[in-house]
Amino acid sequence: MDRFMNPGQADKTDAIYVKERSLFILQASHPISFEPTDLGGHHKVFCFYDVYHQEQLYQQHDEVGNLLKDGKVSFEKSLVALQEAKAIHDEWEVVNIQRMDWKRHTEIVEELKDEIFGTIELAKPSQVSHRIIGSLSAGSAHDFIPSITKRMRRRLLIKGLPGTGKSTMMRAIGQEAQQRGIDVLYGWCGLDPSSIDLVLFPELSICLFDSTQPHAYDPESPRDEIVDIVPLCKKDEQLEKQIDEIQHRYREKIADAGGYMQTAIKAQNSARIQMDRALNVEVFEKKLQNLYAFIKAMDGN
Prior knowledge:
45% of the residues lie in helices and 18% in strands. It has seven helices and eleven strands. A hairpin with a 4-residue loop joins strand 2 (13-18) and strand 3. Helix 2 runs antiparallel to helix 6 (237-276) and helix 3 runs parallel beside helix 5. The relative contact order is 0.17.
């Protein structure tokens, strides 16, 4: 089973995917709504909007509305700060790109392809899946790399500075796997969805991932190996001073985003507490039993 966590509250589940039953259960309402496009077919809606004592809910309408409004404002401010942080991070990458030994980087990528895949060629199409492996949760960055990679017999931890080709390396190795018919899971960066933070090959029980900040990891067992591309970035005192200034601005923006996110989550939780007080438990339990019955009935199909 795959569990999809709330990006703002890493301990809360937004969806689950049960592979054996090809069943995906999604929380499809506030703050981001999804509408069914295949009613009567693959999509079924279970509505929980009417599980409240309406009179109690009406009495709390203004308070809940104000909390949700405050939460939305803070959430939007957090997104703006993250966009600004991304732009600053791009500056950081530009500085490092110009001092990288890209020839050696390409050689390392080819060496890894040969070492990981050897002569493996599978007579089937590659199944490709995608995940966002982390986010800026309330107050801090959070990732699920340990959970995603815990069953892998081999993990390659990539160490490298921003802009030095960690994502490029994983994209190239992932594409090589696809060409060989090997299934691939790509883990994308929560801050920059065009950047790969992880690539995993379930059939080989091997994965590679970016093990630098904000998701820094070191080897934990014999299955872990380091791929260190930091030395490929030539030292330059003048550029290092430039990076120090960029890094300072980046950290400030990330801190701002985390603060706004924390405020937004606090408001959302307060609104949820108020609404829970108006919950009609009997109606809620009946809805839940209907959902359980629907899932159980799938066994007979």
